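ARCHIVE CARD
Drawer: 12
Card no.: 0347
Subject: one protein chain, sequence and derived structure
Cross-reference: see card 0346
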Amino acid sequence: MIHTSPINWFEIPVQDITRAMKFYVQVFRHIRFELKVFNGISHAVFRPLNEQMQFSMTGALVEDKELKAVHQGTVLYFSISEGMSSVLERVQLCGGTVVQGKRLIRNEMEDGRYLIPKTLIDGNVGYYAHFCDTEGNRIGIYSNS
């Protein structure tokens, strides 16, 4: 079976690239950034902290000083392997805002009971949360524990 993804790149718009890089590095401790300029626009490309590792897909923080935060639209979900509470605590300590705390992914049945499904993301029961970063982007995190 050939594994492929419908997404090959993502961009997170930011007004202050330095502030945004600091936020993401402090919240997600396994990343670093490589600064690039494409078409005259500053990009901070997500890279693994460990240079022997490689992400299967990546993207960048893209500086746009005219940007106005909208808190809506597409939500990117970052997989996390540590406790969700620690990540959400760091979000707040680094200037972000938790807008949806940890929540179990579940389906409500017609009779009012709940089914806790295995998720399409990794085949396990999962949890999610949302936060706004320092630039006003709504970001999701996902964990199977």
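Annotation on reverse: Residues 17-27 form the longest helix (11 residues). The radius of gyration is 17 Å.
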